[in-house]
Amino acid sequence: MNVNSPVVLILDDEDMVRENLQAFLDDEGFKTLTASSGEKALALLADNRVHACIVDMRLPGMSGNEFIIKAHKAHPDMRYLIHTGSTAYKLPAKVIACGLTRDMVFIKPVRDMCELSDAIRRLVSQGGEP
């Protein structure tokens, strides 16, 4: 990883999911931060430059959707991928207004993790600097 590596925040309440995503993305050359709740993730965003977030939807306290809406207000250039176990998840209008589309939603478990890292690279290249 070099100094210019994109920074990705992984927001998931399951330790194993966070750790596996972090290990994979670190190997792919990203710098990673992790949080187990939306509240903790917002605190990390206050002190760190983050290019993209991988967000679980079902979280203790604030939901993933609520996190995206709040984070987008404070960091409008940051990009998001949704990583959810719910096959019935539909993007709410307020999340779509933050720039998310259906192709930014990944259902757990992601069979080919390279699809996730490729999606992050595409988002970061479109988004510019946070």
Would you give an account of this structure?
This protein has 130 residues and is an alpha/beta fold. The chain has a single domain (7-127), classed as Rossmann fold, CATH 3.40.50.2300. The chain has five helices and five strands. The mean pLDDT is 94.
Extended strand count: 5
Proportion of helical residues: 40-55%
In whole angstroms, the N-to-C terminal distance is: 19 Å
Instruction: Based on Cα principal axes, name the global outline.
Output: globular
Oligomer: single chain
Average pLDDT works out at 94
**How big a fraction of the residues is strand?**
15-25%
Number of helix segments?
5
Task: Give the C-level CATH assignment.
Answer: Alpha Beta
- Rg over CA atoms: 13 Å
Please identify which CATH superfamily we are dealing with: Response regulator
Quickly count the domains: 1
What key attributes describe this structure?
5-stranded parallel sheet; 5 strands; 41% helix
Question: How would you briefly describe this protein structure?
Answer:
The chain has 130 residues and is an alpha/beta fold. Helix content is 41%, strand content 18%. It is globular and about 35 Å long.
